[in-house]
Amino acid sequence: MCTWIPETCTDMSQLKLRDEQAADIAAIARVTIAAFADEPHSDQTEQFVIAQLRARGELTLSIVATIDEQVVGQITASPVQISGGQTEWYGLGPLSVEPALQGIGVGSALMHEALVRLRAIGAQGCVLLGDAAYYSRFGFQVRPELTYPGGPPEHFQAIRLLGDFAHGVVTYSPAFQAQSQA
Fold first, then answer.
1. Do the domain assignments include residue 101?
2. Using CA atoms, how far apart are residues 116 and 7, in angstroms rounded to an integer?
3. Residue 2 forms part of a structural domain
4. Is residue 82 part of a domain?
5. Which of 69, 87, 92, 105 gives a 20 to 30 Å CA spacing to 146?
6. Alpha helices, DSSP H only, in the chain?
7. CB 4: neighbour CB atoms within 10 A?
8. Residue 67 contacts residue 77 (beta carbons within 8 Å)
9. Which stretch of DSSP H or E encloses residue 75?
10. In a domain, 4, yes or no
């Protein structure tokens, strides 16, 4: 569990977003472990998924949130395959925020930045598996024509960024089956 909590944790003016750097890798793992520790739908492998995406060269985005140069959050995006043949679609997540800083806008800032960056690289759309009440505020919605057999359909959501909505079955990278660093 992360033990460092900034004194100005409610002062969002101190929040900075940037691409991950090699020196951030251990901090990203610590924040991810802490963020998912009490999540009932987590299998506690999110840090391994990120490490495997990194090792496979599949981290299209890895954005960290820092306060006073300390990593307090992180979001990833990686390519997904869609059986309908659409390309340039990405899976968003994991999204991790230091537990003591959840609910003050760190996760929202990371989400907005990730969507801006995905649009900038020409992404057609993005999918994720998560709480519909949270992610709907960013424009994500359940789309019956776009499915993911690995999770509850009411939590699988998509957003169109450019072009048309995709249709078909979504397949994530094998990195999402990661069980450990090995």
1. yes
2. 29
3. no
4. yes
5. 105
6. 25-36, 46-55, 106-120, 132-135
7. 14
8. no
9. strand 70-79
10. no
What is the extent of the structural domain holding 102?
A: 12-177
- Total count of domains within the chain: 1
Radius of gyration in angstroms for the set of CA atoms belonging to the chain, rounded to a whole number: 16
Q: Which of 125-129, 131-135, 156-160 has the lowest mean pLDDT?
A: 131-135
DSSP-assigned beta bridge partners for residue 78: 91
pLDDT at 179: 65
- What would the pLDDT profile of 16-70 be if each residue is shown by its tens digit? 999 999 999 999 999 999 999 988 888 889 999 999 999 999 999 999 999 999 9
pTM listed for this prediction = 0.90
CATH code where residue 143 lies = 3.40.630.30
Q: Is the dihedral of CA 31, 112, 68, 13 positive or negative?
A: negative
Return the structure tokens found at 122.
């020409």
Backbone angles phi, psi at 25, to 5 degrees: -55, -45
Residue 178 has pLDDT above 80, yes or no: no
Spatial separation of the C-alpha atoms in residues 34 and 168, rounded to whole Å:
34
User: What average pLDDT is seen over the chain?
Assistant: 90
Cα separation values, 74 from 10, 127, 133, 148, 179, Å: 18, 17, 20, 24, 20
Q: Which residue has the tokens 């990686």?
A: 78
Is the pLDDT score of 145 beyond 90?
yes
The pLDDT of 66-94, averaged and rounded, is: 96
**CA neighbor of 93 nearest in space, from 134, 122, 121:** 134
